[in-house]
Fold Alanine racemase.
Amino acid sequence: MTRPIRLDIDLSAIRHNYLVSRAQTAGRRAYAVIKADAYGHGSLEVARALADVADGFALLNIEDAIRLRRAGIRQPMTLLEGAFDLEETVLMAEHGIAGAVHSPHQIDWLAQLDSDRPVETWLKVNSGMNRLGFQPEEFDGALARLKALPSARVSTVMTHFATADDERGVAGQWARFQPLAERSGLAVSAANSAATFRHPHTHGDAVRPGITLYGCSPFAELEGEALGLRPGMTLSADVIATQTLAAGETVGYGATFTAPQAMRIGVVACGYADGYPRVVPSGTPVLVDGQASGTVGRVSMDMLVVDLTALPSAGVGSRVTLWGEGLPIERIAAAAGTIGYELMCAVAPRVPRHHHDTRG
Ligand SMILES: *Cc1c(COP(=O)(O)O)cnc(C)c1O
């Protein structure tokens, strides 16, 4: 017997979500963002599921990119932060992996590269996010340096938006980025999921959707379903014990929950060590055998507790959905004061993954 907790990953939903995301654009390329192990969904499985539809993949680590190449993934791949050292620059050339160049030291590595295969380069502009990229006034100099190098082939100019998902939008960053992108004559890539769905004038040549591939909305006021998306992952675990409480009894560490009347509760084999957020309050939604209920008391390391009072047929062995199919991850993220991205990425390695592909 294994501990009854599982993460079901719906690869057909992810393929559907990729196509829905790309369909927001008028025939532009869409690089599927599969960094952070495809936001916790498994980068190899996701890349394989998208291999016949995706225009390319965007990721973070050269190790992951090489692993995908070795597994037979032939699509263009680009590293969103580029090389972290000279050795990685060499590997990018060797394996035909493109990447961002956001800083002068990365150009220095390209200058030291002795390869007859130039590295496809996405020159990154800091248009206001103030994380990675050349300032607009440094752009021409960086581009001229790269163009003079036989080891680099600059294909794309890219930037990344800070507020594409809220009412502030992208106007300021786009005004800084667009003129130099146009003047460069390079392919343009700016849009994350939020801009892919909401700011079509920024689509350029290649969009970079991440979160929407996994069925989660980038917008605080909308859930994925409203965007036509389906959940990529469902986290569930079984009830492993029940308790009956008299009015006034408390539940769990800190005794933060007091039963207002007689209650029946179920103890579920999922805790914060599995990636379920400890900070959520009592009443955070769950589904017990598909029926709506809520959490009771504090989430502990390996267990949490749910209310079974109104669910007389539920008991040991009942399946409890923590998020996913039928229970949008956005709701748990909101209860935890975070975003679906963080919950997806935080599912612990100890939770067994089950990948499904219902492609007919
Ligand atoms: C993560 C990332 C994306 C995807 O962002 P989503 O909000 O998940 O769509 C796109 N571009 C860059 C540079 C990123 O780091």
Summary: The mean pLDDT is 97. The two ends are 32 Å apart (CA to CA). The first helix runs from residue 11 to 22.
